[in-house]
Write a structure and sequence with these properties.
A 4-stranded antiparallel β-sheet has the order 3-2-1-25. It has a 4-stranded antiparallel β-sheet with strand order 7-8-9-10, with no helix packed on it. Strands 17-18-19-20 form a 4-stranded antiparallel β-sheet. It is mainly β. 44% of the residues are buried.
């Protein structure tokens, strides 16, 4: 019996030794092993997407969008520019379907879509959102397109002018080349925007029970509705980023270069800089508790670096602000003189953070010049040097600068 007991003890010691080798090694060395990341952890940045090589995806490219309308035609021209000499590299045309909501008019349900912002300047259709400053309009319009500018999201009205459905248009097609994703009767889908890879359109919608939600429909297959999370109605736009994609419902949304934070604003939510989240939805009071308020910032132009944001100030100058402390850095950058009578609004910051593009125009009037040419300027974020005019005949007061890669 003693021999049998000794044998069992030996086996037990051996098993414990094996277990300790497997699970106790880190404690014996005095160093804790870093846990492996979860394979399904979301990546909020957009660098994880492989993009096709084109003038729209290459470095040091400026992308613009202009809405053009005629008696029988409505479309969006998206153009890729060389920012050195402002030579046009490529143009893509997106025909706007007849059923698409690109203006709001009497006797029809008001539609919330960034396309109304883009096309409403020339048609005098009011913006469906509360603020139409260019620092607000630019990120809204950018969200209409995928990263490679191959598809544009649209909101389609039914013939009765009431029901609305999400859809999209591919570049280079004609007025009949569009895809209606929502096919239900009485759908109420608005704020349609494109996922970074162009494989889904996201939108806000109202359920039959009156619940406000964010949804998406795949651009492939049967286009079934996927519920993505809560919304606060149609009044605020969406921006979709990350891999897998996630949506935030807010205004002036700009993703930091490292993807870890974003700028945004929403009514009754305190702050300007928020941590990105792994779920879709609007900004909340809980989000605001850890947000940073950018001092004196009335318009957010974009990120200068991972920790610095360029703002338009209350005195209509521009200033770099620390995204961690909220304090302004360096000198204020003045674009127009106090006696000029015009205002300057920022649109995009270059990828290296050294320059940005502004639109100079009369207050509350971006399309007032009869000759139609826009007054756009390239300005140093540090305020050094002089502003350089952007000279290209196809750019008008209705043009919105979307990105400077």
């Amino acid at each position: 019996m003693l021999l049998a007991l000794r044998g069992k003890v030996a086996v037990l010691v051996a098993v414990l030794a094996v277990l300790c080798v497997q699970g106790c090694g880190s404690s014996q060395s005095g160093e804790e092993e870093e846990p492996a990341p979860a394979p399904s952890a979301p990546y909020w940045g957009n660098r994880g997407y492989a993009l096709p090589d084109s003038p729209f995806t290459r470095e040091d490219t400026v992308v613009t969008a202009t809405c053009s309308m005629g008696a029988r035609y409505a479309g969006v021209n998206v153009q890729a520019w060389d920012p050195e000499g402002w030579e046009l590299r490529e143009t893509r045309n997106f025909f706007i379907p007849v059923d698409a909501a690109f203006t709001n008019y009497p006797d029809a349900k008001e539609v919330h879509s960034p396309l109304v912002d883009l096309c409403g300047v020339s048609s005098e259709s009011p913006s469906p959102y509360a603020v139409d400053d260019l620092e607000y309009v630019t990120p809204r319009v950018r969200a209409l397109f995928d990263l490679a500018y191959t598809r544009m999201a649209v909101v389609l009205r039914d013939a009765d002018g009431e029901a609305t459905h999400a859809g999209y248009v591919g570049s280079g097609g004609n007025a009949d080349d569009f895809v209606r994703l929502g096919d239900g009767q009485g759908d109420d889908e608005q704020n349609a925007v494109m996922a970074p890879d162009g494989r889904s359109v996201w939108f806000t919608y109202i359920t039959a029970d009156g619940e406000r939600r964010i949804g998406s429909r795949s651009t492939e297959g049967d286009h079934r509705l996927s519920d993505e999370g809560p919304a606060i109605g149609h009044d605020l736009p969406l921006t979709v980023t990350g891999k897998p994609p996630r949506a935030v419902q807010a205004t002036m949304v700009h993703l930091a270069p490292d993807g870890r934070r974003l700028t945004a604003t929403a009514p009754k939510i305190y702050g300007h800089v928020f941590h990105t989240r792994d779920a879709s939805g609007p900004l909340t009071a809980a989000s605001g508790r850890s947000a940073t308020l950018l001092s004196g910032c009335v318009g957010i132009v974009g990120w200068v670096a991972d920790e610095r944001v360029l703002c338009r100030t209350q005195s209509d100058n521009f200033r770099t602000v620390d995204a961690r402390s909220g304090r302004a850095e360096g000198n204020a950058v003045a674009v127009v003189r106090e006696d000029d009578g015009r205002v300057a609004e920022g649109m995009v910051v270059s990828a290296d953070g050294e320059k940005f593009i502004v639109s100079v125009h009369s207050p509350n009037d971006r399309s007032g010049q009869p000759w139609g040419l826009g007054d756009f300027r390239v300005v140093s974020t540090s305020g050094e040097g002089v502003a350089v005019p952007v000279s290209a005949e196809s750019l008008t007061n209705d043009t919105v600068f979307l990105e400077w890669r």
